[in-house]
Amino acid sequence: MKVVAIASLLAATAIAAPTEMLEARQAVGNSASELENGACRPLILIFARGSTQPGNLGDLGSATCNQLKTAYGSTRVACQGVGGAYSASLAANILPEGTTSGAWDEAIRLFNLARSKCPNSKVVAGGYSQGAAVITASVRRLPAASKTNLAGIVMFGSTRTDEEGGRIPGYPAANTLNICASNDGVCDGGLDVSPGHSAYADDVPTAVSFLRGRVTAAGGI
């Protein structure tokens, strides 16, 4: 079923960037490596894009990043996309965990980097579609020390919703928000792409509000 649905997923990616996701003057575009290349900031966002999306953040990652920067100030938030071995290929969706081991290892590297480089920073994370599978697979494997400053996680249209019930094993459910539209066929585990899978731009404010709440609960920045 998943193999057959890959063609549908490919077709959907052509329309997966509705114009309302894109702000005319974004501070950060579809790529950001502010954790790797910049100084420590009070809040770090690690985000994994969806299949075939541009850059290392994709559209939803960019929107989440920019709304966090608007809320806290651009110099107080570092945005970091998951790139490297995570190529966001369509074929990876049919693997047992919905992505490759190289992808989740790259995300783990970034979480560990945030902890070792910026131990006083709060970390939030997110992922869209296959990117949510990357976040799920990496966080469940994180050492305990790298979870201590991980305040909250948001997922949009996760391909692991059916298998994991919108949760991440080994991470508090209260700190996790899984946003899956009722008309998003990907959320049932079959990769049956439907219009709802490309319509999460309007949910970004809800996701950012959730992350801000978790940061406040963790002591703020």
Topology at a glance:
Blueprint: H1 2-13, H2 34-37, E1 43-48, H3 58-72, E2 77-81, H4 101-117, E3 122-128, H5 130-139, H6 144-147, E4 150-156, H7 161-164, E5 176-179, H8 204-217
Parallel strand pairs: 1-2, 1-3, 3-4, 4-5
Helix pairs in contact: 3-8, 4-5
Subcellular location: Secreted
Main location: secreted
Protein name: Cutinase
Task: Explain how this protein is built.
Helix 3 (58-72) crosses helix 8 and helix 4 packs across helix 5. The protein is 36% helix and 13% strand. It is of the alpha/beta class. The chain has one domain (2-217): Alpha/Beta hydrolase fold, catalytic domain (Rossmann fold, 3-Layer(aba) Sandwich). It is found in: Secreted. Catalyzes the hydrolysis of complex carboxylic polyesters found in the cell wall of plants. Degrades cutin, a macromolecule that forms the structure of the plant cuticle. It holds the Pfam family Cutinase.
What gap, in angstroms, lies between the N and C termini? 45 Å
Strand content: 5-15%
Helix content: 25-40%
CATH architecture: 3-Layer(aba) Sandwich
Global mean pLDDT: 89
CATH topology: Rossmann fold
Number of domains: 1
Radius of gyration: 16 Å
The DSSP helix count reads 8
Q: In order across it, which strands form the biggest sheet?
A: 2-1-3-4-5
Low-confidence stretches are 1-7, 10-26
